[in-house]
Amino acid sequence: MQAALITDKETIEFLEFDEPVPDNDQVVVDITYCGICGTDIHAFQSKGPAWPSTCGHEWTGFVSKIGDSVKGLSDGDRVVIAVPPSCGKCPACHAGQMEKCQTVLMATVGRGPFATPHGGFAKQLAVHHGRTVIANPELTDEQAAQIEPAAICFHAVRANSPRLGEIAVIQGAGPIGLSTLQWVRVAGAGMIIVVEPNERRRDLSLALGAHHAIDPSSAMEFISDQTSGLGADIVYECAGIPATVQSAVDLARRGGKVALIGLAMGDAPITPRQWLTKEIQVTAALGYTHEEFEMTMGYVVDGRIDLDVLHSGTVDLSSIATIFTELSSGTTEHTKVLVKP
After folding, report:
1. Fewer Cβ atoms within 10 A, N terminus or C terminus of the chain?
2. pLDDT digit string (tens) for 219-231?
3. What is the CA radius of gyration of the chain?
4. 276: Cβ–Cβ under 8 A, 6 or more apart, which residues?
5. What's the pTM?
C-alpha cells in the first residue's frame, strides 16, 4: 500500500507500506477523505521531511478491522480522527489539569505512543481506537473530514471569546480563519473585521458574516477609524505567518487581547516594548477536548457553522503533489481541498 509523505521541501513521495493490521488497541480505517491543512502546506514549504503522523491529519473513514481489546467500535462504523482522551497518568493529569494532558499534546503533534507511520494521505491507516470518534450520522463525509480543524477553532474561541458587542479582528481568511470567523460570530462579537490579501477570500468572509473584509495594507488605518483610534478589543491571529504575530498586537487596543491560533513556522519578529506599553494579553490555543469535538459536530449539523462553503475542491491521491504546489503558491483560488484516496 502507498502513502503520500512530505519528504523534503516541495517534495511529496509515495512510499510503500504493508497493508495495515491492527494491534490489540487499534482499528484500521478505510480513509474516505483527508483534508489538506495549513500546517501541511507550511511543511511542504520548509526544508526537510515532515513528521509522518502529521502528513494528513484531518480525515474521516470507515472502520474495517478491529483489534482484540477494542470495545465500542464495530466494522463499518464511520469515524473521524481526533485527539485521544486524557491519559490520567502524566504530571498534568495528576495535577488535575486533564485538559492539558501531555500525552494528548504529543498525539496532537504526531509524536508519542499514538504516532502512526504515515497519515491520512493513504487508502488505509491503523490508529489507536482512542483517536477515533464516531461521526455524527447527520454529517456528510465532506463535513466529517473538516470537523477536526473546526474543533481547533472552536477550542480557541471558546477559550478566548469576545464579550458581547466587542470588536474582533480575524487575521487570515484561510480555512482556519474562516472557521474562526464563524465561531466569533456565534459568540456574539459586535463587529467582525477580517484582514486578508486574497480578494476571493475577503468576499467569502463577508458572505459568512464578517462586517468588513480588508486588505492588510489598509488594516491599521481602517481599524483605527472604526474604533475611534483605540484598536480592536481582540485579534485572532489565524494567518500562521511569523510577521503577523506582531501585526496582531499592532491592531489591538491598549489592554486588548491577541489569540494565537495559526501556527507560524519559524521565529517571529516582535516589539516587546509595544506589548508591554499596550498591556496586551496574549494567549495561544492548540487542539481541543472530546467534548468540544462532539459540540463542533452538533453546531455543524444544526447549521450554525457552515463547512460546505469552505470546501472548494476534491482531488485524487495521485494528484496530491500538484495540488500542494498550487496551494503553496499564494495565488490559489482554493479554500479547503480534500484528498480522496
Report:
1. N
2. 999 999 999 999 9
3. 20
4. none
5. 0.94
Please state the φ and ψ torsions of residue 207, each to the nearest 5 degrees: -65, -25
**Cβ contacts of residue 321 below 8 Å, gap of 6+?**
4, 12
- Detail the DSSP E strand segments found in the chain: 2-8, 11-16, 26-35, 59-66, 78-81, 124-128, 132-134, 167-171, 191-195, 212-214, 232-237, 252-260, 281-284, 311-316, 336-340
Region label for 242, one of left (φ > 0), alpha (ψ between -120 and 50) or beta (otherwise): alpha
Whether the Cβ atoms of residue 315 and residue 154 lie closer than 8 Å to each other: no
Q: What angle do CA 83, 87, 89 make, to 5 degrees?
A: 155
Half-sphere exposure of 327 (CA within 13 A, CB side): 29
Domains and CATH numbers, the chain: 2-146+307-340 (3.90.180.10), 151-284 (3.40.50.720)
Q: How many CB atoms within 10 Å of residue 52?
A: 18
Amino acid at 70: V
For the segment 225-253, what is each residue's pLDDT rounded down to a tens digit?
999 999 999 999 999 889 999 999 999 99
